[in-house]
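Lecture 7 notes: from sequence to structure.

We start with a single chain of 110 residues. Read the sequence below before looking at the structure.
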Amino acid sequence: FNTVSNTGAQILSLVIISIDRYAYLQDPSVIYNQIGKMLLDDFKHQDLIFEYGDGNFILVLPAVALDESIKNMEYFKNKVASSHFYGQSITLSAGLSALNGRSVDSDTFP
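Now the structure, written as tokens:
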């Protein structure tokens, strides 16, 4: 993708999500699939969602600045925490980073 802000800088957020205490859940793969479906429902079609090992997801959010991705993840974490997964309380941990810079290509350094 080639999302560029008004200043010519690319904007992109990266999120790594972990299901807390994943190994200790009853039917962890069923819960993992349900959270994956929730991610697909809540995020935009241009967002990229990847599985990453047991109980982890990676999201690449083009054209989403860090402050917006923080709000989105807080909303999603609260949504998961208030959902019921076969009587189990599920929480998520998330790490976020953002790119707000200019991409480097062969024309950048002549």
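The beta strands are 12-19, 48-51, 56-62, 92-99. Keep this in mind for problem set 3.
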